[in-house]
Amino acid sequence: MGMPLSVLMVEDSPGDAALTLRLLTKSGFDLSHLRVETAAQMQQALYSQSWDIVLCDFSLPGFNAIAALATLQETGLDIPFIVVSGSIGDITAIELMRNGARDYLMKNNMARLAPVVERELREAALRRERRMTEERLRLSIRVFECADQAIIVTNAEANIVATNPAFEKITGYRESDVLGRNPRFLKSGRQNGVFFRNMWASLLSSGHWSGEIWNRRNNGEIHPAWITLSAVKYIDGSVTNYVALLSDRTAILEARGQVDFLSHHDAMTGLPNRALLRDRMQQAIDEAKASNEKVAVLLLNIDRLQRVNDSFGHDAGDAVIREFADRQRAMLAPGDTLARLGSDEFVMVLTHCANADEIMVIAQKVMLEVARPLHVNAEEFCVTACIGITVYPDDGLEFAELLKGADTALSLVKADGGNSVRFFTAEMNARALRRIALENRLRYAVDRKELLLHYQPQIRISTGLMCGVEALIRWQNAELGLVSPVDFIPLAEESGLIQSIGEWVMHEACAQNKAWQDAGLPTLRVSVNVSAHQFATGALPSMVKQTLSDTGLSAHCLELELTESVMMRDPESCFQQITELRRMGVAVALDDFGTGYSSLAYLSRFTIDKLKIDQSFTRNITTDARSAAITTASIALGRSLGTTVIAEGVETQGQLDFLRHAGCDEIQGYLFSRPLPAETMALLMAEYSKALGSVMP
Ligand code: C2E
Ligand code: MG
Ligand code: MG
After folding, report:
1. Among 257, 312, 501, 588, which lies 20 to 30 A Cα-Cα from 356?
2. For ligand 1, atom 37, which residue shows the shortest CA distance?
3. Residue 689 has pLDDT above 80, yes or no
4. Could you tell me the distance, in angstroms and rounded to a whole number, from the CA of residue 448 to the centre of ligand 3?
5. Pairing verdict, β 610-613 and 587-593
6. Is residue 394 domain-shared with residue 514, that is, in the same domain?
């Protein structure tokens, strides 16, 4: 089988054609052919199949080689065009060649036919190959220029010989700045030597490496890049170049961060979703376990959101939800979480909770915040909420259990008509309700004159004489009976009622003391307990001053008892206020001494007139060596500071003897008298002034 050859013959003489074809067959070609005589036939033939060569008679009836060549050229095909002629002048032949004919043969001398055809086939193949190479090169250049990936080409010594535009875009370096340099200037320093040694080992052994590298841009910025390295090898296996493809992963990583955020947050409010809530809750539980604290789960539901949706459209409903979320979010303390579970369902996780009361205070605040009217598109909306509460570890140890319990509590609230709060545990709920009721009643206690003061004498041990009285508040309520300050002072402090109650106590105690003096009873000092919250505003000295001038009591007949917690809050402001009070002549006593944390640290800064040893020590001085030691040390400390020392809670003669022996200045306690109503106290004072002797047992 010879070389395949498809010949398109433009020839009007079948005899001539056959002659030519026979010559070719004899030369060993495996021929296929078609003979055409007109431009139209030729055109059709050119488009219908591919040809290796066109052999064209110079002149045909109504057609000729010049027209045929033009016809071929119109198609844009690169097919060798050979003119075969019986009578062609040199001039015409040259012109044809100039126009693109590859050769011409004379019909009477066809010896050149086979060599010419062979040559033309060879040259056409070469031309085709060159065209393909050019095409590929053009493509490569386009890829190089247009690639999103940065491309770095180095020589075998790893010095840069080319970079593309994406390289400049990603790294910020221009090609002209980096030619001839080793690409190590891109290193960020985040990967160590081992990393790069492994990279080179892989590149040299397998010819490839790919992985993520943190690179440094020209502007100093560090960014993650995915890099593919290949060694380009010569036929003999030696490396001629290295090519690095580098894509910037910053956007991808950022997008992933976005994805991460979206998969953990509610799109409408930006609040954590259930998945993130579970994580946060677990974290809160773990921390609470370690620190012995409680975690509260508040399941919140907006009442009647559907009504807003129905009447004002879902946009309004969405706006209400967002506003609701913003308000609740604003109330969160660090470490707390607010999450959105469903359309109108939220969960608040409160950490560092001490007890149900504290949780209830927050739940009440949430309810108040919800109740404030909200404005959407100039419409005013009022929504309410209900809250179901569970507490870790009381109601459950795990997220799911706690959430379920909160849901149960919530459904009970809903069944009751909503707009309320409920604990899962009946007992906690009862406590919380009691607390709310108590707070509501306390709110009116001052106005309804339900508060009163009892007074307890303080005795100087050396003389056995009464030297002062402590005013102790009582709350006489019709339904609750006589309520102890231990039960309602903390409530007053949390609800802010302590300010007005504190003012009332101050006024009442000063007025009473003045009244006793005016009645001719001995001049004594009255001690008034002041809570830390009263120091917070900084207005205590002016309040005291006002009270003294209103009641006409001398400042020297007033003493304030404060606890260490007062000083811990804001030592600077506390120091100023104490200094101002003492300058006015008011004495300051440190109550419950020994129960706080850093008494000594404070004592070194504040000048205090009196130390009051806490009754928890007094109670045990005769039975417990530790209490005895602390009491003795406290007395010694007071002495060395020039401070009066009083022991409270003295109930027995044995305790008194111990204190006297230890050098304590004063005592207060049931041994001498319980706290008494003002009238009874007046009788005691009158009795004692008549006797003028020692009242000490
Ligand atoms: P406190 O200032 O340490 O008051 C001493 C408490 O010990 C009083 O309890 C008093 O009745 C009690 N007590 C006195 N002698 C004895 C005794 O021999 N044995 C025993 N077991 N107890 C004795 P009370 O009146 O219940 O007051 C409790 C706390 O309430 C006070 O502790 C004080 O911290 C606070 N409090 C009382 N009245 C006021 C007030 O007007 N304002 C403020 N902010 N707190 C007050
Ligand atoms: Mg006191
Ligand atoms: Mg005390």
Report:
1. 501
2. 472
3. no
4. 28
5. parallel
6. no
pLDDT at 360 over 50: yes
Of 218, 253, 288, the last residue of a domain is 253
Q: Could you identify the atom of ligand 1 that is nearest to the CA of residue 472?
A: 38
Please report whether residue 369 resides in a domain: yes
Q: Which ligand is nearest to the CA of 649?
A: 1
Q: How many Cα atoms are found within 13 Å in the side-chain-facing hemisphere of 539?
A: 9
Domain count for the chain: 4
Per-residue pLDDT tens over the stretch 433-470: 777 788 888 988 888 899 999 999 999 999 888 999 99
Residue 658 to residue 520: CA distance in whole angstroms: 35
Highest mean pLDDT among 153-162, 543-552, 571-580, 585-594: 543-552
Give which of 413, 415, 407, 443 is closest to 429, Cα–Cα. Answer: 413
Measured in angstroms, how far is the CA atom of residue 17 from the centroid of ligand 3?
A: 133
Q: How far apart are CA 402 and CA 604, in angstroms?
A: 48
Mean pLDDT of 174-200: 86
Q: What is the CATH number of the domain that holds 134?
A: 3.40.50.2300
Looking at residues 15-26, what average pLDDT do you find?
A: 92
Any domain includes 494: yes
Q: Which atom of ligand 1 has the smallest separation from the CA of 612?
A: 3
**Average pLDDT of the residues in 301-307:** 84
- pLDDT at residue 693, rounded to an integer: 46
- Which residue range forms the structural domain that includes residue 622? 445-691
Ligand 1 neighbourhood includes 651 CB (under 6 angstroms):
yes
Cβ(632) – ligand 1 distance below 6 Å: no
pLDDT tens column, 465-486: 899 999 999 999 888 889 899 9
- 154 & 134 share domain: no
Ligand 1 pocket test, candidate residues 648, 650, 673, most atoms within 8 A of CB: 648
Out of 340-354, 431-445, 651-665, the most confident range is 651-665
Gap between the Cα atoms of 98 and 471, Å rounded: 128
If one residue of 453, 469, 499, 529 were mutated to test the ligand 1 pocket, choosing by the most ligand atoms within 8 A of its CB, it would be: 529
Q: Which ligand is nearest to the CA of 527?
A: 2
Nearest to 536 by CA among 572, 504, 560, 580: 572
CA–centroid distance, residue 554 to ligand 3 (Å): 24
512 and 638 housed in the same domain: yes
| Ligand nearest to C-alpha 593 | 3
Spacing, Cα 648 to ligand 2 middle (Å)? 9
Which ligand places an atom closest to the C-alpha of 618? Answer: 1
CA distance 697 to 687: 15
Is any atom of ligand 1 closer than 6 Å to the C-beta of 591?
yes
Indicate which CATH number applies to the domain containing 378.
Answer: 3.30.70.270
Q: Helix H segments across 207-340? A: 250-264, 274-291, 305-312, 314-330
Would you give the distance in Å from CA 509 to the centre of its chain? 52
Report how far ligand 3's centroid is from the alpha carbon of 319 (Å): 53
CB of 473 shorter than 6 A to ligand 1: yes
Q: Which ligand is nearest to the CA of 499?
A: 1
**Is pLDDT above 80 for 89?**
no
Ligand 1 atom 2: residue of nearest CA? 529
> What is the pairing mode between strands 465-477 and 525-529?
parallel
Residue 434 maps to a domain = no
Rg of the chain taking only CA atoms, in angstroms:
51
- Whether residue 158 is found in the same domain as residue 68: no
Q: Rounded CA gap, 401 and 394, in Å?
A: 11
Whether 472 is in the pocket of ligand 1, judged by its Cβ within 6 Å, is yes
CA distance 378 to 69: 83
